[in-house]
């Protein structure tokens, strides 16, 4: 669990050691003061020796000044180390998230990842900072005060040890009680983030359905829960802090009482009693410090576990970095069965076998949830199949270098994802080495050029976050252009012409044929009108292949295909259009 702490501490070991040394000397300076004060009272004030008072007073001043210098140095160093520590941690967490396997990405919600990157890392920074500033000082002060107090008066020290034992017991109990409460707080923060994030993503849907009140209710629930859990975690501190102060105050009262008896008997001097009380106050201060550090530690333990969950999560399949680009692509599924690792356990694809050879267009058709997108993810090896093999140009994708596999497949996903930047940048994202002419050619093939020419700055127009200023169909066309410039031998279009009208879609299909004559195209769709022109059509129903062949063959041999055809195109046919 402490792995990353060790790793970063090793990096900043020198600064850490210097800071701890400063803390040590600062504590010594603090410890010396009550003893000097006792001497000022007992040797100077009592016998009226002004010179001794001045001499010891000056010594006390010098020690305070030296202590302050050490304190300032350790403060600077602890800020430097803890902030760098935090920056390293954030970087490593982010790098890990970028390299997440799909399984890891499915497991942790994005709202929670943001909390981990920000809130949990801040918690760790605070812990490292307070640890360097006070964690090492408090035990030194506490132990030193106990030893020096014992030297001053062994009898009075019995009370002191008793007080320390009771307070230590309080610390242990409060830590046990607060740990579970603090981890609940972190999860409640996750929930608030997720609700806000979901709202922001579906803002238009919320407006269209007028579900403001429900969203407000959802947020209110998460927000109140966070407040309640935070209060519950603070309550532990609220109860135990005064209890500890009370114990120490009772101890001081008892010391004054017994001290006065001892003084009456001439067994102790006034200065020593004053110094004893002073040490007692130092012990109280350090015990409160220790409690605070433990509280931070408890919160940090929950945060550390959450960060470790990210840092130890499964990484994506790695490639060597050196890739081979093929001039053609043949994909084959051989008896493939796959179930999502975090799913219901029921296979999403079952015993799927088909092949698509170079230059061919394969349409994959089927109702929603039949496993079409899953088929695309498996081609890119976002997940590994359980049974059967998927091969690219005869090589099992599991044995193929992952970068090589993904370099040879270009994807236009179902949900067009665009980034803030120009149209040009968004298309070039598919291949940074491509020329401007090639970008325009790709945009023309994707039927995007005609609308790009009509917007004010054409290819230099800025696309807002996630493409907010483009229509669904425009986004899809930019997304297809981006997939085309990648110039991979296999092109997968995952239902990404769904927002285009039939005429534009037909144009895209035709230009794809010309631009990518040698490409293997997999076209995922729900529309018969799109699928029917493909060389081969795979009909999926509930993860099972129920038909494979061309349009004509399937019309006669596949009942599901025929039914889809009748329901989608039958009316057209009745109106006299010929498809068969
Ligand atoms: P289609 O593209 O045909 O609409 P999908 O391939 O998207 O279908 O989904 C097929 C099935 O797999 C659905 O039942 C869906 O709930 C499930 N599924 C999709 N993605 C995941 C995932 N990341 N984790 C678990 N189940 C998933």
Structure notes:
It is elongated and about 115 Å long. The protein starts with a helix and ends in a 6-residue tail after the last helix. It contains 20 helices and 12 strands. Strands 6-9-10-3-11-12 form a 6-stranded mixed beta sheet, with helices on both faces. It has a 4-stranded antiparallel beta sheet with strand order 2-1-4-5, with helices on one face. Strands 7-8 form a two-stranded antiparallel sheet. The protein folds into 3 domains: 16-311, ABC transporter transmembrane region fold (Up-down Bundle), CATH 1.20.1560.10; 321-408 and 488-550, Rossmann fold (3-Layer(aba) Sandwich), CATH 3.40.50.300; 416-487, 3-Layer(aba) Sandwich (Rossmann fold), CATH 3.40.50.300. Helix 17 links the parallel strand 9 and strand 10. It is α/β, with parallel strands linked by helices. Residues 106, 340, 342-343, 348, 366, 368-374 line the site of adenosine-5'-diphosphate (ADP). The site of adenosine-5'-diphosphate has 13 residues, from helix 11.
